[in-house]
Amino acid sequence: MGVMDDLFSEFILECSESLDLLDQDLIDLEQRPGDGELLKGIFRYVHTIKGNAGCLGFGKLESVTHVGENLLSLARDGSLSINPEIISVLLRMLDALREMLSNLESTGSEGDTDYGPLIADLKELAQSHASEDKVMDTPSSPAAEQVRVTLDGLDLDFVKECHEAFGIIDTALQALRAEPAQPGPLGEIAAAVHTLAIISGPLEKPVVEELAEVGESFITLLKDGPTLVSPASLQVLNDLFGALKDTVATLESTGREGQADHGALLTRLKVLPAEVPEVPKTAPPSRLPPQARRRWGPAQFG
Questions:
Q1: Residue 70 above 60 pLDDT?
Q2: Strand partners, 199
Q3: Does the domain at residues 6-136 carry the CATH identifier 1.20.120.160?
Q4: CA 166 to chain centre
Q5: Where does 149-300 sit in CATH, by number?
Q6: Per the confidence metrics, is the pTM higher than 0.85?
């Protein structure tokens, strides 16, 4: 892979820290399987690794953590009880993540190991529970009512994570306006928008999901391209984040994303990169200042 860039180095460091904490938390979970706060922390570690791996294009890491996150989501929400079988497969997942991270650090690739059996086991545990729910619960049953309450809680978590992502984006945009040649702010924005895209899909927030997915593609072109961020690009970024904030605010106040028409904005996000005149990037890469640095760790989520 050659000399590791700043984003890759930061990913390796933060992922290593998260795996060390995850290791200890899984040991604790084996002793305290009903500890809800402990489960929330474990879920967030895996969620964080998945989001960052996806942003950097590490498909195997993302695939393993994705199915692990689904299983942990059921446990976190009280829909699935932790047992020795689940602990065992989560420890296997941890070993797989460590192996991939070690390969990335030493060779720049995730390695050739086939994690299909692990993914299948994680999926089977989650799906077997989902099948049991369909048999046991009816829309009018107390258990079904509890599911609806849980979904309300997930919406609150979703809104909170969105607001934290918006804070990171606002800080990074300020840095980007000051130094449009620097890649650091765009990397921070890309990671935050990727997180919005991946958390909105499972919770069926199609407006946020579409805005974030199209926005992520646009930001990736800016980040990886050879040109400076233009005033026109900055304006469309401002409009994108304004639309995301308005959508989340509507969700927060009404329980729905609203019916605002974002067609024109989505079109601009798709066509603008081809219309912007090229202004070569000449400044050397630099990191965001410490106060603007995003650490995608569990402490950022309440």
A1: yes
A2: none
A3: yes
A4: 13
A5: 1.20.120.160
A6: no
